[in-house]
Every structure is written in C-alpha cells, then in structure tokens.
Amino acid sequence: MAEPGEAIQTHGWLIACDDQARVVRRHSENLTDIFPHWSGPFLGARLRDLLGSEESHRLRNLLSRFSAPARPALVSGCRFPGVEGVFDAAVHFNGEDMVLELESSDAHSGLTALDRAAALIDRLEDLGAPDEIGQRAAMLAGAALDAEHTFFLLLEAESARVVGAYRRLGAPPPAPETLNAFWPGRRLFALGDVDAPEIPIRSEPDLLPLDAGMTALRAAGEPLRQWLRAAGFRSAAFLPVTSDGLRLALIVGLGRQPRFPGLGLRAALELFAEALALRLRLVLPAHHDVWAPDAQMEPLSILIVEDQHMVATQLAAALGEAGAKVVRICGTVRSALDALDDHFDAALLDFTLGSENVIPVAEELEARGKPFVFASGHGDDLDLPHAFAGKPIVGKPYKIDKIVAALRAAKEAKT
C-alpha cells in the first residue's frame, strides 16, 4: 500500500509545496471545495495567500520543530480567510515536497490524542503473554475504530499468526495470504470506502510522482480493494506495530459501512502502537521478521547550536532517526565555545542565538579546521560575513535529509 500514488481518498484535501512551504506545486483536484472563491490557478500560488498569514506561519513553525521523516506534525482547529469550516492538518516532508493534508476537524470525543492514547495504554499494564496482549489490543483498537471485525497478527519469523480477534458481527474474514501488499509502512493507513472514487492530484510539469507512502489520505491499491470486496467489507484500518526496524505485529480493523477515523483518533492509535511495541519487545524472542532501512553509512556525530529548546530537541530526535548521533545541544555562544573540545564530526549552527549571532563559534571552528553548516530561517538569503561566503546554509523549516547530506559533505570536504 505504500507504493507511489497520484490520488487521494475523498475524506480530505492535499496541498504540496516546495520544501520552504512557500509555493504550491501539487494539489488534489477537490481543493475548490475549500476555496471556491480562489480566482487563479492553485499551482504556483503562494501558500500564505491561500491559507492566510496566520495559519501558514503556524505551519512553518510546526515544521521547524517537528520534522522527523516518520512522524508528521499535527495541528487542529485551522481556519482560513473567507473559508467556512474548521480543519485539522498533518504536515510532513516528502522528497522535495512539503505535504499538507487537510481534513474536516475531528470532534470525535473532545479528548486530545494523548488522552485517548493514555486510556488505551493503561489497559495493557496487567498483561504478560503475547497472546493476551494481542487479544486485548485487538479489542481496544476495534472499539476505538468502531470496527465490526478486528484481528491482531503477530509476526513470528516467516509467518503471521492471529493471536487476538474482536468481532461484533458474523465470522471473521481470512487473513491476507501475504503481508507485503497490505503492510502500511510506519503509520496507520485507513481506507474509508472501498467503493468511493479517487481524487486525482495535479502537479506542476516535470515533477516526479508523489511518493504517497507517508500520506494518510492516499488512495488504496487494487489488491487491498479486491480483498475487502471479497470479504464483504467497505472500510479498513491497518495499524503497524514496529520497534527498531522490526515488524512485530499488524492490527487490522474492518467495517461493513464507510468509515474514516479522524486525525486525532489516528494519532492516538499510533501512540498506542508505539507503547504496544515496547510491551511486546519485553515478552517476545528476537527472531521476528526484520523491516529495517537500507544499510547506513558510519553514523555522523553532530554538535547542535540552537537557542530554541523545543526546536533543538525535535531536531535531535529527527537526526537520531536518520542515523546521526547528536553529542551535545548548545543554546548560547558561550556554551557552544565550551563544547568545541568535544569529539564531533560536524556542527550545525543556527545563525541567530537570541540577541547574538553564531559567528564567534564559526570563527573558532574554522580556526580548528572543524566542519560546520549554518542554519537560518532566511535560508540562502542569509547575509553572511565575507569570510564565510560560500559556506553551506540549510533553511528552516528543517529538512533532515538535506541537513545530514550538508553536514556529511562538510565533513568530507575537510578530510
């Protein structure tokens, strides 16, 4: 289900911009449902003009703080100028695109995603055996999804075994013969209505197809549709349970009626799956199917100089997921200078640190022959001193693959 796709389901809207979240490069054809009074083409439009300054600024700030490749930034209660309704949004980077998915606001229960997740996680505390955990997880996820059938597939070496099931109507369907066509990747995937039409995505000329593997609204592949129709179901949700690249389990919830879980509920279930994975790792042997990224190069050790603690923390987590190692985070020029005796391969320097700039740190790094990369919300427009003209600059919102590539290139240029 994670293959590239150029269509979404009917439950929302998609906008893709350049990686600085400025100009629209792709959009779903139904975007006129939200913006019926937009007079010009959507392609090439400025995101700020479309969403309004307040919401576009909020999204850019989110991306600066929360840009891990496998975890989109989520925001609720978005309102746009001249547009009726309230929207929830999920934002993530996808290659050269910043992808924004919009859905009608989720008022499922008034609870936040953390509240919902905590209520689910608490129900796992008294369980110790894999089969018990699977049965309880199937029941909890099925109830949360309001699914007629839910089953928990535990992955054991070469096979998948149903260890828990929750059903409200009739006999459960047979599990899929192969997981490869159904594995959703690292995020929950929901198909709201197997019979609903797909909404095409329009793109600027010469762009590569959008890799929709991270897109929650993406259209489903035909193997999944055929399996659901054969089993007599209209909707489905697939929740992966993974840990450190290992496929541990898959929770499948099925419905007889069209149903698409809102963004808040999906976020809660993904948090629940993370806790579930940790619980399973305590009781499962270590011989499960491996689902790991391609082999990484030698880890890159990084010094981060960034004065905004939340941004730095999220950046460090995202770099860790990308295979890098953050040795220290510094928020001032003084603390950064004190850290230069630490061992690190390269430094990432936010140009503005409160009321000062990072140039004294850059000068000392240059004197020691240590590689570094500047970071700034001004991107390539940053006015660097003449001594540092030509030094690499990464812009905000941060894009992790570009940061890692820039730091690695800076390191290699010094060797």
Automatic annotation (TrEMBL):
Alphabetical list of SUPFAM superfamilies matching this protein: CheY-like, GAF domain-like, PYP-like sensor domain (PAS domain)
InterPro entries: CheY-like_superfamily, PAS-like_dom_sf, PAS_2, Sig_transdc_resp-reg_receiver
PROSITE patterns named in the record: RESPONSE_REGULATORY (PS50110)
Alphabetical list of Pfam families matching this protein: PAS_2
GO biological process: phosphorelay signal transduction system; regulation of DNA-templated transcription
Protein name (database record): Uncharacterized protein
Species this protein is from: Rhodoblastus sphagnicola
